[in-house]
Structures are given as C-alpha cells and as structure tokens.
C-alpha cells in the first residue's frame, strides 16, 4: 500500500510521474532504448532537456523576459558556491534565516566579505528577520524563500536595487510570486520537482559577466548557458523526471492551481496544530511555511503512542530535523490533501485518547 509520504526531501512525486519515469528507464517512448542508455546528444534527449528548460520558464512566467534555465549537478549546495564565484566581486548581503542560508554564507565567505543583513539564529530560526536595510552598492542580496528545516517562509521579498538571488529549493512551483523580481533563482530538484541529482537554476542573463576572477568551466554559468545546459553529460534521469513533473503541473493548471491545493493542506494542518492542545507549532505564526509545518508534542509521554499510531496509519517521514526536534509535515506539491486529512485524524485521535 502506498504510504502517506511527508518526507522533507527527497520527497513525494506524483504517481503518474513515477510510472512514466520508470517506463522510460526500460523503454523511452517505444524507441527500443532506455532513457539512461542513449546519448545525451541524441535528438530524443536534447528535446527532453529543451522541454524541461522551457517548461520551467513558462511555469514561472519568465518566458521572453531575458531569463534562461539550466539543469545543473551538485545540488543546491553547489549553487551556494557558484553564486558567489559568478556574481561576487566586492561585497554581498545575505539574510541568515536558517541552516541552508548559513551554509550559503559560509561558502560565499571563501571569496569575499559577506554582510549578514539580519539573522534569526538567536531564536533557533523560528522566524523570518524583517526590517533590515540592503546597501545599494552591493553586488547582490541573497535570501532563502523557504527554510525547510525550521518551517518558515518568506511571504514578501525586499525591494532592492541590486540583483536579488533566491534559494527556492523547497518551495519553487508551490505558490504564485512575481518571479521577475529575482535575478537568479536556484532549487535542488528533490524537494518539489524531481529526484535528487539535478538543480534548476534560472538566471537573468544580464547579471553575468561582471566579476573579474577566472571561473572554472564547470562552475561558470556562462559556459553552461552557451552549451544549452549540456556542457558535460547531464543527469538524464533526474532531468527527464523533473520534466515530467513540470508537465504534470502544467496540465493541472500551473502554479496558481497547485497553490490553491497547497493552501488547503496548510490550513488544515495548522488548524490542527493550533487547536489540538497536545501539539505546539515551532515557527512564528506569521512566518510559517506552507510547505513544511514544524511542531512538537507537548507531552513526551505520548511520543510512543503517537508514533505507533502514525505507523499504523501508513504515515512516513514525519520526524523533525535534529536541530528542531519534534515533527515536520512536508506538504510538497504532490502530497494529496487526503494524506493531510489522515495525519490530522491521527492527531485528533491522540487527543481523544490522552
Ligand atoms: C535541501 C536544501 C538545500 C540543499 O540541497 P542539496 O541539493 O542537497 O544540496 C539547500 N537549500 C534549501 C532551502 C534546501 O531545502
């Protein structure tokens, strides 16, 4: 029986995507060849790559606006480094809103001075810092739209005159935003788009070419752009499966349609967390994430009972990250509302037992 998969990442994908992807591993579109045994330079695969790149821009509403999409390797963690290598000349501003943000700062510091415009580390990152200034002479400002581990999400982004860079690994394609306010967006596929192994990078081309350092080819966005995201062998399976998910999303009605579903799931989840006296939300209410709901059980004595009930209900992946403890319900695009209903039922059943 299929489990209710609340895993934070790698995460749930739509069943039809899993089916199509697994079929393509055996035989890609009745070609008599497997997706993973054909040349990445074949027409079949070049078409897949181009479709994936085009769908990403189309869904984000960035077609014809000077943006290009790349599917790179090395995870979002490599983007921490690539952003700095390609864009940091003198100084950049970073918002420290969580563990991933802190890691991006650490990597950028290898190259130059970094100014932390604000941080919520003092409160174990349970809120999004606000009301900070971004110096207008910096090279760029970097933020994290959704803090996967702590369950906080930026609801608004600062207006700034310098390039705005955003790590959207865990909430890309989940909500409508004016994506053209960003100059560079990156997202590891395995949170809301596909299997691990590829990272989507969406770049406004005119931000590139402004640093004086030499950039190694594999780290250079311009090199990847000039080669159509095929400078070296791309992760074909991860790109194909991401393409299928993007196609699935487009057929559903795009981001605006999935956003409505995501809102329903989050509303149901948070109303249970707020109303059930056994549980306590971790993130500050105004900043809580629609993707990752973090909460704790007030009475540790109920832990075993709760976890047995979760198991019996077929709920997977609810354990919180070690730096927060408790539980984290990740409600990415492919998670059905029904799975949230099952979880909420278990939570309220625990209340009636306690
Ligand atoms: C998971 C995650 C990362 C790291 O992604 P990798 O692909 O494992 O390197 C970075 N940022 C955020 C917001 C994440 O959720």
From TrEMBL:
The gene is serC. Pathway: Cofactor biosynthesis; pyridoxine 5'-phosphate biosynthesis; pyridoxine 5'-phosphate from D-erythrose 4-phosphate: step 3/5; Amino-acid biosynthesis; L-serine biosynthesis; L-serine from 3-phospho-D-glycerate: step 2/3. The modification N6-(pyridoxal phosphate)lysine is found at residue 191. GO terms for biological process: L-serine biosynthetic process; pyridoxine biosynthetic process. One of its GO terms (molecular function) is pyridoxal phosphate binding. Its EC number is 2.6.1.52. The lineage of its organism: Bacteria, Pseudomonadati, Bacteroidota, Flavobacteriia, Flavobacteriales. Binds 1 pyridoxal phosphate per subunit. Its cofactor is pyridoxal 5'-phosphate. Belongs to the class-V pyridoxal-phosphate-dependent aminotransferase family. SerC subfamily. It is found in: Cytoplasm. Residues 5-341 form the Aminotransferase class V domain. Pyridoxal 5'-phosphate binds at residues 76-77, 100, 148, 167, 190, 232-233. Catalyzes the reversible conversion of 3-phosphohydroxypyruvate to phosphoserine and of 3-hydroxy-2-oxo-4-phosphonooxybutanoate to phosphohydroxythreonine. Transmembrane segments: none annotated. Homodimer. L-glutamate binds at residue 41. This is Phosphoserine aminotransferase. The keyword ATP-binding does not apply. Coiled coil: none annotated.
